[in-house]
Amino acid sequence: MTRFLAYIPEALESIWRHRSRSALSALGMIIGIASVIAVLGLSQAASGGMKQAVASGGDPGFIVGPDRSQNNPAAATMYYRDAALMQSYASGSVSRAVPVYQQHQYRVTVSGKSDFISVSSSRELTQETGFIVDSGRLIDSTDLAAGANVAVLSSDAARAFFPNGDAVGRTINIGTQRLTVIGVVSIKANLFRSAFGESIIVPYTTMHRIAPGPIDYIEFWPLSRAQNPVQVILAVKAAMARIHSHAEYTVQDQLAFTAIFVNIISFIGVGLTFIGGVALFVAGVGIMNIMLVSVSERTREIGIRKSIGANAQEIAIQFLIEATLLSLGGGLIGTIIGASIVFFMLPFVAHSLGAAPVPWAMVIAIAAGFSLAVGIGFGSYPAARAGKLDPVEALRG
To answer: Number of folded domains in the chain?
Structure first.
């Protein structure tokens, strides 16, 4: 081991003696490792962020809505009562169904001041699904059961309507309904929610009085995730056909939809990492060429070493260590650059998907493994060639 370590200073001296050439040969390693670190880190962070968003927000359930491609989409118009009817007709598959009103513009009046604001309905709200409570509280199950005249305002809407004070406890008018503000929230965007500007959220039971007409879709949950989702979907479609004959509906499993997104991101990450691997291959060829040139330039040195007792294995090890150090040096610089890119881009990923942890141990281990493999793999041939040189022929070089 001592003899092995003694070769390291010699290898470093040789690299430094030809530092311009060494830097150019290591450039491919720097680019390749930086791209692998950046792509792998960000793709793993995005996948992890999606998985955490689902885990923290609970089961996102299924949604059923009109099939817009049918000949008469109006025949599939859904109403508030359809949620309860669908749950009843598909009781063997569905545990809960909730009517959903997406964001629509409504005239909102506060102290004589009116404006058109996006209003949407909601079931119970939790901070885990991306809401940050600035003041007050969120909509809970009691509000839903009572059909309470309450509302949660986005921070932008609160500033617009109540610029001089806390909005909580104040009243607003949406249509003919007078509502009390119970909370002001900001949104940390994640997979299921995005930043929503000036917006108001009310319980879906209250929204039914504000807009008694059609709903946008129904959100529902199966009795158990152990159920075959295909059977759940068929049961729901049969229930909807019973409610609205001659109408067609689409059903989407939001959990499966999330899994597809995660798989797509992982696949893209693997594909781009493969491209980075091609850059590493090119870098390895560059290191091999440089080492072959080094062997040719140092033929006489090799001959002298062999003439004083160095064997082929010792000569080969010296050149192999030099190639490996050159590869590891480029890999280290590439890792620093790649990690810097990940740190810079991570806030944007987190803003879109929520918390996005990066598995640094795995990413760094892969980078180190690639660097070591390239150094040893592409340095082996020049090292073996140096070790096989005939000492007499080498001394004539």
So the answer is: 2
